[in-house]
Specification:
Elements lengths: L10 H4 L7 E2 L2 E2 L7 H13 L4 H13 L8 H4 L5
Antiparallel strand pairs: 1-2
Helix pairs in contact: 2-3
Length: 81
């Protein structure tokens, strides 16, 4: 019997990333945060007029150096350069 870790092409074995299932132009992302982090993220998203999903995507863009919109991520999120 073969475990899921022994399958050929498993992403953990060859460091490839499988194409995620798209929902429109987005993919589902699942993770766990503390209740306090969740509350702060929802509040920060609302203050910026963003959905929680858009806020998290913007944080990922800022952290990975992707320029989103017309302002650099540092200005959009008050991140020191």
């Amino acid at each position: 019997m073969t475990s899921t870790n022994d399958r050929a092409g498993d992403a953990r074995d060859d460091f490839t990333v499988r194409q995620p299932k798209l929902d429109g132009n987005r993919v589902a992302l699942r993770g766990r945060v503390t209740p306090d982090q969740h509350q702060r993220a929802r509040r920060a998203a609302a203050q910026r007029g963003l959905s929680l999903s858009d806020y998290l995507g913007s944080l990922i863009d800022a952290d990975t150096g992707v320029r989103a919109g017309k302002r650099p991520p540092q200005e959009a999120f008050d991140i020191p350069a």
